[in-house]
From TrEMBL:
One of its GO terms (molecular function) is exonuclease activity. Keywords: Exonuclease, Hydrolase, Ligase, Nuclease. It is an enzyme of class 3 (hydrolase). The keyword Nuclease applies. Its EC number is 3.1.-.-. It comes from Paracoccus solventivorans. SUPFAM superfamilies: Metallo-hydrolase/oxidoreductase. It comes from the Bacteria. InterPro entries: MBL, RibonucZ/Hydroxyglut_hydro, Xnuc_lig_assoc. This is Ligase-associated DNA damage response exonuclease. Coiled coil: none annotated.
């Protein structure tokens, strides 16, 4: 069986004909396999959803209990049609997974979803999975993206707080994954005081705590008390909400803060380069380690990675899927 007979791009996203399912579909479909809970990958309205238990919980939190007609938690290898699917940790956010599609005859295809190899205190670490076809993102698929140690970036945040003790520090973070990771990193860096969080972050932070992830004392940003560290969605910085804080230091935790022009455009005083995706060295190292027969690239800086694959005699093709970018704020 040819690879394109096992998995192919469609207008709704990647589709597996022998299994009759889509992976991270862009629109409602009958059967969907979901890699993780970010809204550019996990959408409501499907007939049946298969995902990790934590991703299913997160979708219910974000979209309501009726986000799909039926749901099933991935637990071990599952037979679907004439293929077997298995879920493996992706290291991206809580519940994130890579999906391996194994036909009876033909190449084993690994769909990475979004993944990260840097240790993350709020989710399981990325796991290497042998495969013949590796389908990867290329969000940071250019050599300029070399992410620093995230704990060192948290140290920079605490150093700024010590330098400017009278100025509250507001950090822009996505509600799922980055918020909880930023809190955990601040704790690891030595910040034991309460951290104030925007209301948009509350339910997902509560869920992480319920899953056994210690985030320390959290207070609502509407009543921060003595808290000098405040986390909020980046979009909140452009609303009157931010005016309640006097002379704040605006920070933003993202791999995109490598590009200083982005920080300046947003008026960010303290850019924190903390990413939940692989950077260029990790991306290329992953391909070398897995040594697949072919690489397929879903989205991001496809041309840079395609050129690297060409120089290293690795067959590669772009899928040019649209709709998979940073999660909406």
């Amino acid at each position: 069986m040819r690879p394109e007979d096992i998995l192919c791009p469609t207008e709704a996203g990647l589709y597996c004909p022998p299994g009759g399912f889509h992976i991270d579909p862009l629109r409602p479909v009958r059967h969907a396999l979901i890699t993780h809970g970010h809204s550019d990958h996990a959408r409501p309205g499907h007939g049946a959803v298969l995902a990790t238990r934590q991703t299913l919980d997160i979708m219910a939190i974000r979209y309501g209990e009726d986000f799909a007609a039926s749901r099933q938690a991935a637990d071990g290898a599952l037979r679907i049609g004439s293929v077997t699917v298995s879920f493996y940790p992706a290291g991206h956010v809580l519940g994130s997974a890579q999906i391996l599609i194994a036909p009876d005859r033909g190449p084993r295809i690994l769909v990475s979803g979004d993944y990260c190899r840097t240790p993350n205190p709020v989710c399981l670490p990325w796991q290497p999975v042998p495969c013949d076809i590796f389908i990867t993102e290329a969000t940071f698929g250019l050599p300029i993206f070399r992410h620093p140690d995230p704990l060192a970036e948290a140290g920079r945040l605490l150093a700024s707080m010590a330098e400017f003790p009278d100025r509250p520090h507001l950090v822009g973070v996505y509600a799922l994954g980055k918020a909880q990771r930023m809190i955990a990193l601040a704790r690891l860096a030595g910040h034991d005081a309460p951290i104030a969080i925007h209301g948009a972050l509350q339910r997902l932070c509560d869920y992480h705590v319920a899953q056994g992830i210690d985030l320390g004392p959290l207070v609502p940003a509407s009543e921060p008390g003595e808290a000098r560290l405040v986390l909020a969605p980046p979009s909140a910085f452009a609303t009157p909400w931010v005016q309640r804080f006097r002379d704040p230091v605006l920070a933003y935790a993202s791999g995109w803060m490598t590009v200083r022009a982005r920080a300046r455009q947003r008026g960010i005083e303290l850019p924190l380069v903390i990413s939940d995706h692989v950077d260029w060295p990790q991306l290329t190292a992953t391909i070398r380690e897995l040594a697949p027969q072919e690489v397929w690239i879903t989205h991001g800086a496809e041309d840079g990675l395609l050129r690297w694959c060409e120089l290293n005699a690795i067959p590669a093709r772009p899928l040019r899927l649209v709709g998979y970018e940073d999660e909406p704020e």
